[in-house]
Structure formats: C-alpha cells, structure tokens
Amino acid sequence: MRTVVQAKRWTKNVGVKAIQEAVAAKPIYRCEHAMVVTNRYFTEQARRLAKANGVRLWNRDELVRAAPRQCRRRPLSGPAVGRELPVLTGLRSPNPLSRLLVEIDDDNLDA
Predict the structure, then answer these.
(1) pLDDT score for 69
(2) Cα separation, 12 vs 64, whole angstroms
(3) Which of 25, 41, 77, 100 has the fewest Cβ atoms within 10 angstroms?
(4) d(CA 32, CA 38)
(5) DSSP one-letter string for 2-37
(6) CATH topology (fold) of 3-110
(7) By C-alpha distance, which of 2, 35, 10, 9 is closest to 21?
(8) Sign of the Cα pseudo-torsion (23, 2, 8, 92, in order)
(9) Tell me: the pLDDT tens digits for 25-82?
(10) Where along the chain do its domains lie?
(11) Residues with Cβ within 8 Å of residue 52, at least 6 apart in sequence
C-alpha cells in the first residue's frame, strides 16, 4: 500500500489547499491513499473536502498519540529513523514533524 503524505508545520489551522495538493499527488506518485498531517488543526472546509476524497487527516492530537514514547519526553532533535516517506512540499530540510513521520509505523495509519 502506497500513501502520499502532505505534512504542514504551520502556526494556523490547515485549509483546503493542503487537501487538494494531497489528492492531486496520488496519481503522480502512484499512491492508493492520501494523508495530510499537521502540528495544528484542520478547518471545517478542509475536513469536509478530505472526507469527500477519502483523505486521512492527522492533527496535533493524532501526532501526540502516534509519537514514539521517547519523543513525548523530549523535543525531536535526533536523526530520522526508519525509511523515508515521499514528501510533497514544505519539508525540504529536516524538521521535527518530518522526523516524526518517518518513525510512525505503517500499522498506525489504519488505526
């Protein structure tokens, strides 16, 4: 199963543009699923568009639940662990959100 992941590390809530980008990227990267992850929350319009297009959304609450135990005790600062995930935009250089994404087990995606 291939999943395209759009990660947004923003200071405001994420809107429909991020959902549109993830939906558009599915055929480009030959993925069956799309997911948008953020350190914030999603607008109501973004949630509706994601639901209509089958896009999985993870807000800050899901990230905290999925974070490896060691990440909850201290800020993320170490190197990425595990395999790299395809990234659409916004993560050209390593940041805490991208390091967390590569540590999430595939089994958590379906939870």
Answers:
(1) 58
(2) 18
(3) 77
(4) 21
(5) -EEEEEE--SS-B-HHHHHHHHHHHHHTT-SEEEEE
(6) Trna Endonuclease; Chain: A, domain 1 (3.40.1350)
(7) 35
(8) negative
(9) 999 999 999 999 999 999 999 999 999 999 999 999 998 888 775 455 544 444 443 4
(10) 3-110
(11) none
